[in-house]
Amino acid sequence: MSLARMFCRLNGYLQPKSKARAPLVSGFIRTQNEVRHWQYTAPQTTSCHWQLQEECLELSYGGLVMHFAYVWLRDHCHSASCFNSKTNQRNLDTANVELNIRPANTRVDDENIFLTWPDGHVTRYNLSWLAQNSYEGQKQNAMQPRIIWNSDIYTSAKVPSANWDKFMSCDDELKKFLGSFLLYGIAFVEGVPPTVEATETLTQRVSLIRETMYGKMWNFTSDFSRGDTAYTKLALDRHTDTSYFQEPCGIQVFHCLRHEGTGGRTLLVDGFYSADKVLQKTPKNFELLARVPIKHEYIENVSDHRNHMIGIGPVLNVYPWNNEVYMIRYNNYDRAVINTIPHDIVKRWYVAHRELTTELRKPENELWVKLKPGKVLFIDNWRVMHGRESFTGLRQLCGCYLTRDDVLNTARSLGLQA
Ligand SMILES: C[N+](C)(C)CCCC[C@H](N)C(=O)O
Ligand SMILES: O=C(O)CCC(=O)C(=O)O
Ligand SMILES: [Fe+2]
């Protein structure tokens, strides 16, 4: 199949199937149930048929017809000399594999297929392993299960908060917490002691903390101690943080330790939900937001703090192979001068940006919460936008950023798909 056709196929399956899908979940982002439906299940039968074709091995097993390129098969040999099963690393030098290699001999037993290569080396492939790792068995499983939400969807899901004691002592509580975090992009823990230390202890159960120029744990008020509007009492419109990093921080944690005054509620908006709306309504605007590179910038010059950060990338970051949005950079405060695209595209980009903003600002998409001492909020900063209402009085907010890979690692170690 040509590469162009492959992308066509992938994109085809991303097209919103407006009639077929459940109304409250996304078309291009599949729901947990749909994913379950697609997941590879263990074969009912062990019978296997194979055929050596010109370029590949055709294998039919467990209800799947699969194709494996010979060079792929040689590269994926897990014999002791080709693969170190202690480190799970490849020993074989792929560059030494003859690109047109073909097996000289083939045999099967109940669970395996054995290929003998021209130099006499024998590879054993477990049939279930092949099925699980085949393109045909894997392709529909590539997306992260997630439920995109507006305020109603999230509220009626009644996602329970985790409880501090259980969270710290019981892996199952952590697993439930991370499960809902992965699905919704936000999750809460309640009953946490209102201190920076407890907040740090809590987050370290989930991940390594990502240290930035704001420090490791931060604890701030409206004292303008840093050159950023976050350190004032002003309202902040919905945004993602650290859009000025080449890799924006994956997760943000907030714990309001104190507030003696009014206002200061936190606003949360699922960016993936709005991106999906743009994709459904005006695909060409989605395309512009996904292709036009935009700079974000953080220039700070106060007392000891001298920082100049630049991050460049589209507002909607999509995987090129399936067009799935995996990260949004949306911060109108920190967006830098646009000088890398010609004026006619600039105008079209503003139109697209306006459509996304209109979606993000629809009141039905806004989830408002008042953070209180004891209630810790985790936000997927690649997906869910946050903002705040202006406030009066003393308000102290602590928190940190987390490294995304470590959060996902913890989720996987507990048996979640991440
Ligand atoms: C969270 N903390 C107060 C430490 C930093 C705030 C960073 C604010 C910046 N404008 C941004 O959106 O990234
Ligand atoms: O004060 C708040 O609630 C949040 C401010 C903010 O956007 C941030 O610190 O990233
Ligand atoms: Fe922020």
Which spans have pLDDT < 50 for at least 5 consecutive residues? 6-44
- Overall mean pLDDT: 90
Q: What bound compounds does this protein have?
A: N-trimethyllysine, 2-oxoglutaric acid, fe (ii) ion
What CATH architecture label of the largest domain applies? 4-Layer Sandwich
Task: Please write the CATH class name of the largest domain.
Answer: Alpha Beta
Structural overview:
The protein is of the alpha+beta class. It has 2 domains: 31-141, 2-Layer Sandwich (NE0471 N-terminal domain-like), CATH 3.30.2020; 145-418, Double-stranded beta-helix (4-Layer Sandwich). Helix content is 29%, strand content 27%. It has 13 helices and 23 strands. The protein has helices spanning 3-14, 32-38, 70-75, 127-133, 135-138, 151-157, 164-169, 171-184, 196-204, 271-281, 283-291, 343-360, 404-413; strands spanning 48-52, 56-61, 64-69, 83-84, 89-90, 105-108, 112-116, 122-126, 162-163, 186-190, 209-210, 218-220, 236-239, 251-260, 266-270, 294-302, 305-313, 316-318, 325-328, 367-369, 376-380, 384-388, 394-402. Strands 9, 10, 11, 12, 14, 21 and 23 form a 7-stranded mixed sheet that branches. Strands 13-22-15-20 form a 4-stranded antiparallel sheet. A 3-stranded antiparallel sheet has the order 1-2-3. Helix 10 (271-281) packs across helix 11 and helix 11 (283-291) packs across helix 12. The longest helix is centred in the last third of the chain and has 18 residues, at 343-360. It starts with a helix and ends in a 5-residue tail after the last helix. The model is unreliable at 6-44 (pLDDT under 50). 2-oxoglutaric acid is lined by residues 230, 236, 241, 266, 386, 388, 397.
